[in-house]
Amino acid sequence: MTTEVSEEPRITTQNGKYPKSIPSIIGNEACERFSFYGMRNILTDFLIGYLLLDLVEKDRAGAAKEVFHIFVMGVYFFPLLGGWISDRFLGKYRTIFWLSLLYCVGHGCLAVFEGNKTGFYAGLFLIALGSGGIKPCVSSFVGDQFDQSNKHLARVVFEAFYWVINFGSFFASQLMPRALKHWGPAIAFGIPGILMFLATLIFWMGRKEYVVVPPSPADPHSFGSIAWTALKKGRGVGRALAVLGALGFIGSFFLVPTLGFVASFCLALVVFLVLAGPGVVLSLEAARGAHPDEDVEGVRSVMKVLVVFALVTPFWSLFDQKASTWIIQGKAMVLPGWSILETASQMQAVNPLLVMLLIPFNNAVLYPLLRKLGVNPTQLRRMTAGIAIAGVSWIVIGVLQRWIDAGEKVSILWQLLPYTILTVGEVLVSTTGLEFAYSQAPAKMKGTLMSFWSLSVTVGGLWVLLVNAGMKNERFTSAISETTGLSTTAFQMFFFAGFAFVFALAFGAYAMRYKSVEHYRKA
Questions:
Q1: Is the dihedral of CA 398, 402, 405, 411 positive or negative?
Q2: Is the pLDDT of residue 436 over 50?
Q3: How far is residue 394's CA from residue 497's CA, in Å, rounded to a whole number?
Q4: Which of 33, 71, 222, 505 is most buried, by CB atoms within 10 Å?
Q5: Banded model confidence at residue 57, pLDDT cuts 50, 70, 90
Q6: What is the dihedral of CA 227, 232, 234, 238, to 10 degrees?
Q7: Which residues cross the membrane (predicted)?
Q8: Distance from CA of residue 32 to its chain's centroid?
Q9: Helix residue ranges, H only, 184-222
């Protein structure tokens, strides 16, 4: 089959209507998300119950949690690579198609190498590369289908896009844990592989309907070029921060023996961005003359958006642990005999089910009501509230952990409450963040900026690994027990709640000063 598309951009005026390409994109996303969440939601159980049996029993849960979060960090790190390939070489369509094929191969490895760590981890790597690589391309590909004549419909489609993600996730969360329990890993991982192949096929079949924006040509005034010029020509504090960022990047690798390579590399990247980013902003004026003023200002606007992305990272550290920490807690709880639950992993189905209900409820009831009351639920206000609400869910999960630590038999149905609260926060942060990231990106930087949105999830995983590394220090854990009377697990839960509240305050303060812009292509 051919994947050739015209080298000329197929950009048409939509005349205020929904693009014809949207059904193919959404159908692809539904199948792809089923495949991803199908394997993701059984990964922790599989690692504990099958692949890590060579470890002593008390170490399996912790090791499974680390493998899970390293995998998730990879999924949300590779958008940097996918966005760069898309923007500079292949364009969004070809990048999505070819990385989807690697994605299919990765699923095949999971099914075939269920008892082989090397083969299984290779499969996880390919899935992280495929899923992560297409992530910024798919979201921005949706945005490319709109122009000024129908941009008002983009919000609805982005929310439908997120709704269908959760449609696939709901059925995957219900069915795949059952498949693992009754049919074993080969079939449980094979079914998501079949769905990923179907997703790729649906995407290819819609190729004639897509608006295809070609990759940007080599640009001497790209984001990276302007930032590099600013740092080279800058002086004073800006130059000093850049040097400190480079030294911090190198220095972070000395932590490899303690944190491992993945966590150390991500920490190095964070240190560099935190220091060199402000250095670029302070030195931008030095880039004028070498680069057009419009592009220099574009870099300034992108740097402001990156601050938003940085402040949202704690939300992801809380959200992704529902598939690791919360499952491990659920395995210590009681499954009601009358319920449809067979494993703790199935509790994750609550999240996508509520998302499907909350998105239309928010649009039809909550947001109109708030506007009538004189409160404008802007994107950044919604995201601020979402981070804080996620923190509340972790207070509840921490209380449940205290009951378990006290020896009480706790029904897993109690987890319905924190799942519900966390999902409310997710809808406010994640659905809003997709649209926000696309709308704030200048045209030639959309793929890159969407990649940084995904990178915020990787940094969220980094916070989890850093906290877990701290919990391995026996002196520290003993001090926690003596000072607070909490178990290590309960302490971590309350810590992450407080972490979210602090960053929600910082996010809200920054949001009050941020001025939103719109970057949709002209009709």
A1: negative
A2: yes
A3: 5
A4: 33
A5: confident
A6: 70
A7: 67-84, 96-113, 119-141, 183-204, 236-255, 261-282, 302-319, 349-370, 382-404, 416-438, 450-471, 491-512
A8: 15
A9: 185-205
Q: Work out the number of other CB atoms within 10 angstroms of the CB of residue 58.
A: 7
- Condensed to tens digits (0 to 9), the pLDDT of residues 362-384 reads 888 998 999 999 988 888 999 99
Could you tell me the pLDDT band of residue 482, with boundaries at 50, 70 and 90?
confident
Q: Is the pLDDT of residue 13 over 60?
A: no
Please tell me whether residue 334 adopts helix, strand or coil conformation.
strand
User: What length is written for the chain?
Assistant: 523
- SS3 assignment for 373-430: CCCCCCHHHHHHHHHHHHHHHHHHHHHHHHHHHCCCCCEHHHHHHHHHHHHHHHHHHH
Q: Across-strand partners of 334?
A: 411
How high is the mean pLDDT of the chain?
Answer: 86
Find out whether 86 and 447 touch, Cβ atoms under 8 Å: yes
The SS3 assignment for 291 reads: strand
The identity of residue 289, as a single letter, is G
Is residue 451 within 8 Å of residue 82, measured between CB atoms? Answer: yes
Higher pLDDT, 520 or 436: 436
CA 240, distance to chain mean position in Å, is 32
Count of C-beta atoms within a 10 Å radius of residue 476: 13
Question: What gap in Å lies between CA 468 and CA 68, rounded to an integer?
Answer: 13
CA nearest neighbour of 297 among 284, 316, 279: 284
Task: Report the pLDDT averaged over residues 408-415.
Answer: 94
Cα distances (angstroms) measured from residue 228 to each of 115, 283, 284, 364, 449: 47, 10, 10, 46, 17
Measure the CA–CA gap between 390 and 264, rounded to whole angstroms. 27
DSSP helix/strand/coil, 242: helix
Give residue 517's pLDDT. 67
Cα dihedral 396, 399, 401, 407 sign = negative
Q: What is the per-residue pLDDT for 268?
A: 93
The H-or-E segment that residue 347 falls in is: none
User: What amino acid occupies position 17?
Assistant: K
pLDDT at res. 7? 39
**pLDDT band (50, 70, 90) for residue 135:** confident
Average pLDDT over residues 317-334: 94
Residue 183's CB: how many other CB atoms inside 10 A? 12
Instruction: Say what angle helices 57-77 and 446-470 make with each other, to 10 degrees.
Output: 160
Q: State both tokens at 33.
A: 């998300």
Euclidean distance between CA atoms 156 and 153, whole angstroms: 5
Give burial (CB, 10 Å; 0-12/13-18/19+) of 391: buried
Alpha helices, DSSP H, located in 284-349? 293-311, 313-319, 325-330
pLDDT of residue 490: 94
Q: Which pair of tokens denotes residue 27? A: 């159908």
